[in-house]
Amino acid sequence: MVSSIVIIGGGQAGAQAIDTLRREGFTGRLVLVCDEPELPYQRPPLSKKFLSAELAADRLLFRHRTFYDEHRVELMLGVKAERLDTSRRRVHLSDGVTLTYDKLLLCLGAVARRITCEGADLVGVHYLRNLADVAPIRAAFKPGARAVVIGGGYIGLESAATARKMGCEVTVLEMADRVMNRVVAPCVSQYFAQEHRSHGINLQCDVRVAGIEGRHRVEHVVCADGTRHPADVVIVGVGAIANTELAEKAGLRSDNGIWVDEYCRTSDADVYAAGDCTNHPSLRYGRRVRLESVDNAFEQSKAAALNILGRATVHDRVPWFWSDQYDNKMLIVGLTQDHDSQVVRGDPQARSFSVCYLKGHELLAVEAINHSKDYMAARKLIADRAVMDPARLADLNVALKDAV
Amino acid sequence: MAKIIFIQPDGARREIDAPIGTTVMETAVQNQVHGIVALCGGACACATCHVYVGEAWLAKVGPREEMEEGMMEAAWEPRENSRLSCQIHVTAELDGLQVTVPAQQGG
To answer: What range defines the domain where residue A99 resides?
Structure first.
């Protein structure tokens, strides 16, 4: 009989677990521990409309405070879980409190990867991951301010687009030969590079940052080839690392994420995990994955909550992702690894196209740029392991859902 | 505030005062209207806040936009009066708006 559940982490996964547990009839003690002081909030707008102040903070919240009161959720916010004792089912918190649990759910998320070059800790160098990170960045994004973004991934490019919209002079420095190189096809990288340049961003690929200079605060970002970029503010977006520290110290199996099975169980029978912090099996793709995805956090956490309540539920969904840059919406579904061919549908010049990834004739993933129709069709096709007809796939007169 | 009326597939009604300037989706989520998932938080990326707009309100709410149109591809049982509630902004004009929640969200 489960009478006490503790959730650690108040992101998408933590918030969803609360919802599912109460909706599915769990009436026992439910505690949420989160090291951030805010009520659980949505992270995606932090680099977009919240950064540009188009969206007020209360509109980020998953639920208002009354929800937690009405659903008898004990919120322990601004408190860090310091140590986990799985043998006694206890969590020791930074404020001295010790919680006991029947079942524990770890929704610890990921943390921004830090750079270590000289000057990396100068005033004016920022990372964007949490709500609290936004205010100083927003304040620095004054019209005319020179913003240098290190890293041309999702966070880097979204922040760059927002900075530009807010009137900054923006430089983006990417180490690889193209932006978003780990997540999209070359033609998609090219399309977005062109978009950023046409909005007046100085985008440089194939550059390595050697250091950051400044007397009291950041003044220049210096590249390995000697180029110096004047900077009033620096945003670093060079990826994220699964937050496994608490789990590892407790002896839970971890390897690029907290190791869980398809039922979201960790190596300890009473501890579950969900979201960005997990390394989990993808049944669809036949391998283990670690995903940074709102959708995965939501689905995996829902499955974890049901499993905690004794209702065996396998987490097996095709993951999807999105990014907004200027007026472009990129929607991605599936995982591209192991593909052996790509088919581009449409013309990037027309600002609406998609890239289909195939293994043989099986559809593995689709990247859709301003093309929600292909994206939605692909979600179903990929889950169904649809076998495509490449000739029909390349024919724009044939809808994606019919190109089988 | 504008009053939004949410109708469940079984006919159950809920009237909720929505702040002007927010979206119908936000009102539904903050008030735990069953059947509105809104996973992407209003980015028009997930089609899990699908509603049917009451016939009398169609003209005032307006048609689907292009992006939204594509999202309907895999929505559950889309109809002529289908909208994504994250794309309906609450205005004083929409006071009394009736929307029906579908029996399912997603494809």
So the answer is: 4-111+240-308
